[in-house]
Amino acid sequence: MRSRVDLTRHLLDHAYRTFTDNLIGLTLHEALATPAGGYRSVLGLLKHAAAWSHVYHSFAFDPLPTGWDDLAWPRGLRERVDRSRGYLDEVIGWFGLSHQSWIRSLGAVDDEQLDRPRPLHWGPSAPLYDIVVLVASHHLYHAGEINYLLSIARGEAWEEGEEVEENHISTVGHRVRPAWRP
User: Fold this and answer.
1) Which of 87, 103, 121, 130 makes an SS bond possible with 126, Cβ 3.0 to 4.6 Å?
2) What distance in Å separates the CA atoms of residue 149 and residue 38, rounded to the nearest whole number?
């Protein structure tokens, strides 16, 4: 039987993998695109999710937590991005480092410690388990946004055979054939 810590690590790992699965095959053009004239890009969402993952981890585990303004941002860029493939890869790696820190730190606690309060960056505290659920939920929320942005940028619709018309726009010719379908 798995321990609560094992299940907690599994939850966070699943959320991280769901997020990063959306980045497989990502081009620089797709990472920088802002479909429909919006202000969010895949790179921006990735940078945002990675940064908050670092902040929440630091507050949960570091004796002197590091806040948003004091993070070691890739290339020192907090309010801007470098529009290069190298920078995109660095931000992806930065997100991976945060995830590794979470998994390593959670591996050093026992089930009882999951219920102990840890500080949050906005002042109050919460049980470590609740913080992990919040971080995992944040990953999943933005994974959905990335999936949607990429479907717009790629001109993709629902998976083939999964038609769910919610408007008057036909998806014929824009279906996606999932890898698991024969």
Assistant:
1) 130
2) 10
